[in-house]
Specification:
Number of helices of chain B: 14
CATH superfamily of the largest domain in chain C: Periplasmic binding protein-like II
Family (chain B): Belongs to the binding-protein-dependent transport system permease family.
Largest sheet of chain B: none
Largest sheet of chain C: 5 strands, mixed
Region (Disordered) (chain B): 1-22
Strand content of chain B: under 5%
CATH topology of the largest domain in chain C: D-Maltodextrin-Binding Protein, domain 2
Strand content of chain C: 5-15%
CATH class of the domain at 104-249 in chain B: Mainly Alpha
Radius of gyration of chain C: 24 Å
Number of strands of chain C: 11
Structural class of chain B: mainly alpha
Helix content of chain B: 55-70%
CATH class of the largest domain in chain C: Alpha Beta
Shape of chain B: globular
Radius of gyration of chain B: 24 Å
Pfam families (chain B): BPD_transp_1 (PF00528)
Largest interface: A-B, 112 and 117 residues
Structural class of chain C: alpha/beta
Chains: A mainly alpha, B mainly alpha, C alpha/beta
Domain ABC transmembrane type-1 (chain B): 99-288
Main location (chain B): membrane
Strand order of the largest sheet of chain C: 2-1-3-10-4
CATH topology of the domain at 104-249 in chain B: MetI-like fold
Distance between the termini of chain C: 68 Å
CATH architecture of the largest domain in chain C: 3-Layer(aba) Sandwich
Oligomer: heterotrimer
Helix content of chain C: 40-55%
Chain lengths: 315, 303, 426
């Protein structure tokens, strides 16, 4: 993870850093100890326990059964539902994250200027975060309702569709509706993070761009974007982790509450599948295998993100 | 405030106040594009979309059930039953207690995340100790660990520790997060010049003193944003409280969920609950937003 | 100055919140004065509030807390609590559909036979008692609460539009069998094209399956969904009627379903006793007198009804068993039936009570609900549920949804259901 310890792109070049000699004081260890302690107990231990469970035949109610080795993982690879869930997870992740971050950049760019009632705009953009996810799912499944939904009403009014769309019934429509929910909830949040970073961009950079006669858009591309790259990376990683673990939105989108993700599992994400096997079918062994595969998927996608984001060197 | 006064600069450095979304940037610090009518229009569209579902919740919550269900498309005009529905929310669920619980959980985790994350972030950004890079690598890896996936073992652990049904079951595991540590490390790295830390050391300040008098003020705005987001994460968390708390002593999300406990879901009631649960946060953050703006302005003028 | 103040506020806030948090964590049930606290967990309102009040008067040392959750969450939570050995309420309701799941871990529940449950054996409907004892002779898992005997609710106005009889005896005579029911649906649809015959194929199929003695599992708990001719017969009949447009395609208990009832998009609904309250609430007061209740096709059947169990992990098992006994007693069940909840009693004596037998519902055109539901409750045979019954049901429900969405014909849906069920049960 050497990547992370390199000076960040906005870091100032300067004299060699006068740092304290290593190993002198136990205090630095004490400073980082709370995190590692809590993580060990409430993060790592459950995860390792999950790994242990995944190697057994394990009923949630009856408890530990016999050791089955990697059988649960083999079964997973043979399970067509798993591939569907993997596809759904990645599809919803991409459909929601990419437009979300782009929209957030645009919103931040709009907010990063002289505005009347600046605070009000910023507070309003954050409103989706105040609304609980239960409410979001509830409201959006109403908006995307087949029979009396506002979205269908609007689309029909505009003459874009002939018959109402049954949003939960098809892969594309359900993915679109769920992604929309996710986008709505997180765009403002990311916009504010970007805004914070944009406000830290040194003034001289803009001034020299203005002297060169660069347009507003060009300045944004050549000055702002490179300057906030660490923040971009941060949001990409965070959205990846969140986006791949999507649970509440697809779970509540289906009013049956059985984590099937539709009649053909057309919007069953990996977390929903995990919930179905772990909490409905009580097959804890299989569900734990899903957990671990999901963990690996997240690690791989996050690593790809890091590599992609780091590849072009600083100008 | 002698310690926190910046030392004489060895090189010209752009005056950079710590970054934060609610910061009002004084004109003299940086030239900003003035926003034209188009920008205002676009922003208006974005905020309208942001606010619409909450507005719609409010509309449904202000009707009695039948009138909302009767139409072929829901009405966008508020009705006259809001107060009545809100009263029912408080009658039918332990909403006051839930509000108190949520504030306690969200407030505690927000404050502790800010303090513990900036402490660890300070150590990672400015101190040298054996194994630092390795440990930082660990933080980044744990960032990818989807902790809620181990929810059953976690539940068993919490039960064994005697925390089931108590607010500590929500608070203790969330006291500090990898995201916070990672983010605060970045903030300390970017906002606190090494010279400042060194100056504090020369002045004879211990590490804790340096942390409290140099680091905390320096990253205050980023810390506020972290606190704000942690607060909202805790406030909105749904999956874990549902498992770790019994419904009669739950958070706001659990209380909301309770409103849908019957076979028949009364949407006017549920959405009245949504409005009630969103209002305190909305008010708190609107007030807080002004505070942050003024606080930073004062800091910027002084610095 | 602003800085210092802000920081001081932050520090004070941190100290204050952590203090409160600590004191909140330190608490626990204070039971030094000899009072004990019992928690009763149910899904939806069981109508226990007045009964708890009454119990408190006779048992001043007992504090009772109610815990009401959503149906699936309630049962999933119980699973988690059983699995981890803590957190369950003292008295927990389990619905009949979920009961088989907990059969495998019955040793985690108090055998109520040890607390005198067998004395009440004669009071209960025989099939309800058999469900509660899990087919054993010495183990009583729970006290039965209510039963959900089946009927069909129908819209009189729509029947009149289609030229069908509207009188409940005549309507019952239209459909002695499900085939006759679907055939009547064809006739109805020929006349009334803008309305559906029933609300959801899933609800029809569930009702049919609940009328068989053995559905998806045989007495040895072996899966027979793929070989039991009844399953295929019921599925195919439902799927064909659905493909012919008889279903309103409304997901049961969803908002669309509620609105569908309000707007009267279907002429009939399968109607266990507890469904009547739902229909009434969804349709609203203004629809009073448009609905009536007739007999269910294919003889009687049961859908729903619960049991009060006492998990062993509780601290006051004896007192909890006593409370469960009280809440299901004849007097209690009668009070619940005549109260706003109106759940149908599971005790023979109460069902025979003239007040219960003579009950009628004004909203449903004065339908004699006591007579309709009580008499069919007594004539029922038990309907065996396998341990993994729900896991078998879900794929069949999904397959019917595919027919509703026009994505599969009945034959393809059947194949899909079998394949998915086999996978879900491994």
């Amino acid at each position: 993870m050497a990547v992370q310890t390199r000076p960040l792109p906005t870091g100032r070049p300067g004299p060699p850093r006068p740092r304290r000699r290593p190993g002198r004081s136990p205090l630095p260890y004490l400073f980082v100890a709370p995190f590692f302690l809590l993580f060990a107990v409430f993060g790592a231990y459950p995860l390792l326990q999950t790994l242990w469970v995944s190697l057994h035949d394990w009923d949630r109610l009856a408890g530990q059964g016999e050791w089955v080795g990697l059988a649960n993982f083999r079964r997973l690879l043979d399970d067509a539902d798993f591939l569907t869930a993997l596809f759904n997870t990645l599809s919803i992740f991409l459909l929601s994250t990419v437009p979300q971050l782009l929209a957030a950049l645009a919103v931040a760019w709009l907010l990063d200027r002289h505005l009347r009632a600046r605070t009000v705009w910023r507070a309003l953009v954050l409103v989706p975060q105040y609304v609980s996810v239960v409410a979001v799912a509830l409201v959006f499944s109403q908006l995307f309702g087949r029979d009396y939904g506002v979205v269908n009403g609007a689309l029909q009014g505009l003459g874009l569709i002939d018959a109402p769309v049954d949003w939960t019934a098809d892969t594309w429509s359900s993915h679109l509706a769920i992604s929309f929910m996710v986008m709505w909830r997180w765009t403002g949040y990311n916009a504010l993070i970007y805004l914070a970073a944009m406000q830290a961009v040194p003034r001289e950079l803009y001034e020299s761009a203005a002297i060169d006669g660069a347009s507003r858009l060009l300045t944004f591309r050549k000055v702002t974007l490179p300057a906030i790259r660490p923040t971009l990376l941060f949001t990409v990683v965070i959205s990846t982790i969140g986006g791949l673990q999507l649970f509440a939105e697809p779970f509540l989108f289906d009013q049956q509450g059985n984590a099937e993700g539709g009649a053909e599992h057309q919007f069953q994400t990996l977390t929903l599948m995990l919930y179905k096997y772990g909490f409905i079918n009580n097959d804890a062994g299989y569900a734990s295998a899903v957990s671990w595969v999901l963990f690996l998927v997240i690690a791989v996608v996050a690593a790809v993100n890091l590599v992609l984001a780091r590849r072009p060197r600083r100008p | 405030m002698a310690v926190s006064a910046p030392p004489t600069r060895t090189r010209p450095r752009p005056p950079r106040a710590p970054a934060g979304p609610f910061r009002a940037v004084p004109r003299r610090v940086r030239r900003l594009d003035a926003a034209g009518p188009l920008a205002h229009l676009l922003l208006a569209a974005v905020t309208a979309a942001s606010v619409f579902p909450l507005y719609w919740s409010f509309v449904v919550a202000s009707h009695d059930d039948n009138s909302v269900l009767a139409g072929t498309t829901p009405s966008l005009v508020p009705g006259g039953h809001l107060i009545e529905n809100i009263q029912r929310v408080f009658e039918l669920s332990a909403f006051w207690q839930a509000l108190g619980n949520s504030f306690l959980v969200a407030g505690t985790t927000a404050v502790s995340n800010v303090l513990l994350s900036s402490l660890a972030g300070f150590a990672f950004a400015k101190l040298r100790f054996r194994g630092r890079d390795f440990l930082l690598g660990c933080v980044v890896v744990t960032l990818m660990v989807p902790t809620q996936l181990g929810v059953i073992p976690l539940y068993i652990l919490v039960t064994d520790l005697g925390m089931y049904g108590k607010l500590s079951a929500l608070i203790v595991p969330a006291l500090v997060s990898a995201v916070g540590v990672f983010w605060m490390r970045q903030a300390v790295e970017e906002n606190i010049p090494d010279e400042l830390v060194e100056a504090a050391r020369v002045d004879g300040a211990g590490l804790l003193r340096t942390y409290w008098h140099v680091v905390v003020p320096g990253v205050r705005t980023t810390a506020t944003v972290l606190g704000l987001f942690t607060f909202m994460f805790a406030w909105n968390d749904y999956f874990w409280p549902l498992i770790a708390l019994p419904p009669e002593n739950g958070t706001v999300q659990i209380a909301l969920n309770q409103l849908a406990a019957g076979y028949y879901t009364d949407y006017t009631l549920m959405l009245a609950g949504v409005v009630v649960s969103a209002l305190p946060v909305l008010v708190a953050f609107t007030v807080l937003a002004r505070r942050i703006v003024s606080g930073v302005m004062a800091g910027a003028v002084k610095g | 100055m602003g800085r210092t103040r802000a920081r001081r506020t932050l520090g004070a806030l941190a100290a204050a919140t952590s203090l409160v948090a600590l004191s909140a964590c330190g608490g626990g049930e204070a039971e030094a004065d000899g009072t004990i606290t019992l928690t009763v967990a149910t899904f939806s309102d069981f109508g226990y509030k007045p009964l708890i009040e009454e119990y408190r008067r006779t048992h001043p040392n007992v504090v009772i807390k109610e815990r009401v959750s959503q149906f699936d969450q309630h049962h999933n939570q119980l699973s988690t609590q059983i699995a981890s050995g803590g957190g369950a309420a003292d008295v927990v309701a389990i619905e009949e559909g979920y009961l088989p799941k907990f059969r495998a871990v019955k040793d985690k529940f108090t055998n109520l036979a040890d607390h005198g449950a067998n004395d009440r054996r004669g009071e209960y409907l025989d099939w309800k008692w058999q469900q509660a004892t899990l087919g054993t002779s010495d183990f009583v898992m729970g006290y039965g609460t209510d039963v959900g005997s089946l009927a069909v609710c129908y819209r009189k106005d729509l029947f009149a539009r289609a030229g069908l009889p509207t009188d409940r005896a005549a309507v019952s005579a239209l459909w002695p069998t499900w085939d006759a029911y679907f055939a009547t649906g064809e006739k109805f649809r020929a006349k009334v094209k803008d309305k559906a015959w029933f609300d959801s194929s899933g609800n029809i199929f569930t009702a049919m399956m609940n009328q068989t003695e053995f559905g998806f599992f045989d007495a040895g708990d072996r899966y027979i969904g793929d070989s039991n001719p009844k399953v295929k017969e019921f599925f195919t009949a439902t799927a064909r009627a659905t493909a012919a447009g008889q279903s309103a395609n409304l997901q049961p208990f969803s908002q669309q379903w509620n609105t569908g009832i309000k707007l009267g998009r279907m002429a009939t609904m399968t109607c266990p006793a507890w469904m009547t309250g739902l229909i009434k609430t969804a349709a609203g007061e203004s629809a009073a007198g448009t609905w009536d209740i007739a007999a269910v096709p294919g003889g009687g059947g049961n859908w729903g009804g619960s049991f009060l169990t006492v998990p062993k992990q509780g601290k006051h098992v004896k007192e909890a068993a006593e409370l469960a006994d009280f809440l299901t007693s004849a007097a209690a069940q009668k009070k619940i039936f005549t109260g706003p909840v109106g759940a149908l009693p599971s005790l023979v004596g109460v069902l025979d009570d003239p007040e219960v037998e003579g009950a009628a519902q004004d909203w449903f055109s004065q339908a004699p609900t006591g007579e309709i539901f009580a008499s069919s409750a007594k004539s029922l045979k038990p309907n065996y549920r396998g341990t993994k019954d729900q896991q078998a049901r879900i794929p069949f429900g999904n397959a019917l949804q595919l027919v509703e969405q026009g994505k599969a014909d009945p034959a393809a849906a059947w194949d899909k259901a079998l394949a998915e069920a086999a996978k879900n049960l491994r």
